[in-house]
Amino acid sequence: MSKDAPRTLIDDLLAEQRTLTAVERFAQKHERHELPAQAQYYRDLIPLNKPQAGEQYAFAVNLDTCTGCKACVSACHSMNGLDEDESWRSLGLLLGGSRREPWQQTVTSACHHCEDPACANGCPVLAYEKDEATGIVRHLDDQCIGCQYCVLKCPYDVPKYSEKRGIVRKCDMCQGRLAAGEAPACVQACPNEAIRIEVVKSGASSDERMLPGTFESSYTRPTTTYRSSAALPTNARPGDSGDLRLEHAHWPLIAMLAFTQAAVGTYAAAVALPQLAIPATVLLHVGLAVSVLHLGRPLGAWRFFLGLRKSWMSREILAFSVLAGAGVAFTGAAYFGWEIARLLGIATVVFGAIAVACSAMIYVDTRRPWWSAAATFGKFFGSTIVLGLHAAAIAAASPIVLAVAVAAHWLLVGWETRRNRHSLEDEEHPTHRSARIASLLMRGVCELRVSAVLLSAACAAVAFTTATGWPSIIAAVLAFVAVIAERTVFFTAACAPRMPGIPARSGH
Hints:
The protein is elongated. The model has no long low-confidence stretch (mean pLDDT 91). The relative contact order is 0.11. A three-stranded mixed beta sheet has the order 8-1-9, with no helix packed on it. A three-stranded antiparallel beta sheet has the order 3-2-10, with no helix packed on it. It starts with 8 loop residues before the first helix and ends in a 16-residue tail after the last helix. The chain folds into two domains: 43-238, Alpha-Beta Plaits, CATH 3.30.70; 251-492, Up-down Bundle (Formate dehydrogenase/DMSO reductase fold). Helix content is 48%, strand content 9%. It is mainly α. It contains 17 helices and ten strands.
């Protein structure tokens, strides 16, 4: 434009725009209705200031105004582009009161962005990070290998496994929107302003449970707060507290645990019977190969070492990797009859015991009562001993060793039966619900296990009357079937902690 050209109104407006302050520009946008339509409603529901050192963002829920309309669930699903069967925010129910004055309360929940997140502590490839500036716990999709250990670790059922993508995903508090001064989808959508974002001080979370039926807060220190002007009834309980439901069986893990524990037991027998070294190595590698089927992205499993400092799964992978190398060395030495074979065999058994212990700790570390240290270590090492004795009975062709193997299996079954009976009789016992699931919903599987052990005992009796080795082989197969049955109950009856009143997901 030439200097002599007449100045137009557009030129004047553009010049004025360049001199306006931020406040004046915001006022003009407001007058021209250029701000989001809902801004007038949600701006008071997010903090004016960002978290300072020692602070973080957190959800705050007003139970008095939550009506259970699920607008927050729909908004989260839509604005985050989730799959049809995927949800990062859920709605649960608390029940209480009396028959004359019944009481119920809907509960909306998402990720609690814990101060000490169990999901991040369990991940073998560090696919989680807790943002230092905001405290938001983010899942790194491109880092995830789909092992789903975070699903087992989280006591609030937050991480969701996507079969389609082979990874886990979860709520990130709409971090991008918060950074731009806009409220998360759930906060914007709630018609009653029941959800807001607050800045809380680190370490402010209470050790008490957030709500009746939730996990002990001391485990992960969740930051979400639930408030109500009225005290909750003393008998408030989750709406689904009486439901009995099966958890996911995790078939690759069932097979992996059975094969690897059979391998370690067989390695122990191979110290005295070197011909068992090859079968033990085959069992071990079958178990390790099957375990890969549980990963959504198995090609990324090589990064397991990233989580060695915190994750028992990383430690288990390392332990079995060392065991595999030691087992191959022992097998080679035993095959060629080298004198060092026995020493390598003992080392292999030691590494095997460490690997089985790491497998047990993966489940103990979830703090589910059904997977207590006593129960899990007893079952895992009990199976290792029983299957190792059966392998020894086959190699030695000894009816006496077979009888010892069957007797050991009966002791293991009897010990577990006694524990379950005690849980069934005591309604306040932490594993009462799991014991009921095992006895009612998994009754057929439990009966299969007992039948298999009974038949193996019959094989032991036949072994004393025949010179052939087939009774020992059949008994070993039956013992393995019994272990598979026990592992199935081990997973499916392990009641997963959740937010109150939220139904279990099918599948993963």
